[in-house]
Structure prediction request, 563 residues.
Amino acid sequence: MIFGMHPVTFWIAVSIAAVLGITPLIFLLLEKAGKLPPALRMDVWTRYQSWLVLAPLMVVPLIAGRLPAILAVGVLAGLCYREFARATGLFRHHLVSATVGLGGLLITFAIADHWYGFFMALSSLTTSAIVIFSLFADEPKGYIQRVALGIFAFVMFGLCLGHFSYFANDRLGPAIQLSILVCVSLNDIFAYCTGKAFGRRKLSPNTSPNKTIGGALGAAVLTTALFATLGHFVFRGTALDSPIHLITLGLLLSLTGQWGDLVMSSIKRDLGIKDMAATIPGHGGLLDRFDSLIFVGPSLFHYIGYFLGVGLDQPARVFTGH
Amino acid sequence: MDEWKYKPAGDQGLEPTASFRSLKREVGLIASMTQAAWRVAVRAYLRGYHRLRVEGVEHIPLKPPFVMIANHSSHLDVLTLGAALPWRLRRSAFPIAAGDVFFETPAVSAFSAMMLNALPMWRKRCGSHAMQELRDRLIGDPAIYLLFPEGSRSRDGAMGRFKPGLGMMIAGAPVPVVPCWIDGAFHAFRPESKLPRPMPIRLRIGPPLVFADVANERAGWQDIAARLEAAVAALRAPQQP
Prediction:
């Protein structure tokens, strides 16, 4: 423990702070050397400023404790839903939005309560509620579309992001969550860099024309190595601290991360829009940033859950227990 | 089954302030709740503090599109017109508000959008493009516009001349325009006052006029302005039984 934090948590937080501290110096050096064209200059500074706000907003709640972490992911999920609903047109159906919102609130409550049974029950309860409550508008025209979009949204932002959030109930929660966040972000960057270097064959030219098979494989190798290394320190002394488990976890993370990215690309291409919103200057919407996080949660959660359990040694049913 | 008709929000991809100022802004669950809360509070305030009385509610069309117009001498006018609309029409109603007052700063824009559901009209640079956009939305949505054809608040309580801009939105279209007369708002909250005074307000709603057969050109717009000005002025003196 360092300052009450798991060493991995501590060092990731320090590294992020260091990167944010050093980046402007690198920009200044590049500018001095004349290697930063004015057109690019504005862009990188806007992006940097956004990271300067975004990174603490992500990292601080995760290390601040169980409840801040769960609330922060809940707020993130709500904002992601808002972007999704406005982009797809679902937002015009307030009854569906209200039901998805209620499901999201209950999910957040179940996680904060550390009530795994209720958390799991909400997948069937909320999807049924979306199907049933949508009847009350008495508007059969477009019913299937409304319901389908509502369930799609709830699965991605309620259930999937909820799984990421649920790690907060584990002793290793902040370390796992921060490792996931760092690896998912670097996964994108690895894919971009190795794709530039080795990518020739397109991965899915219709969905996302810039992605290459080389980039996908490169990211899978590098991210798996990184997560396996971090995971070795996170899961030290547990059943998961073996190469086969760590490599499997890393591969799961890299693949589900890249698939999340492709899912959002597919949605955007279907809608004919470039960004999901303009929430973060230089990045587009929150969903453009967090798309690759969505499906990582459930896959890692249930893998870790199978071998170790999540939060089993922590007090359960914090609010509803007796 | 229907074709897939869902499309992104009209203001999709805009940053918050630009979205508040957009004529294509669409309301989601959150804004619809803040607007409903605001509406309830405003109606209670007008009924309690200003003893608001409304005559001629039966003249309000049953469904959009339509336009409600009135004389303008107070900030209470737009609240009064909005309060007269039935609850089920609330989500279609957009006050058309002066951009240089209600959409000047980001905070005020947020209030105008989230509470009033107002759309901006930029008085100094209101091109025909913006008018066309407003017209398209009025008919396409379909929507209800609350607006004041004098263009700004009267400083002495007397009604000014109607500007022809409104004609550009409705000439040649089957959109009813409901003339209204607001009595008492000027004395209750004068343009130079800081706070409203507890004076009674009365709203008189007249039968709607339609200008479907008027040509959508300058002469037609002026004709519409003159006829609406006469219709609103006629409501000033109530008919004796």
User: Anything to note?
Assistant: Residues 29-49 of chain B form the longest helix (21 residues).
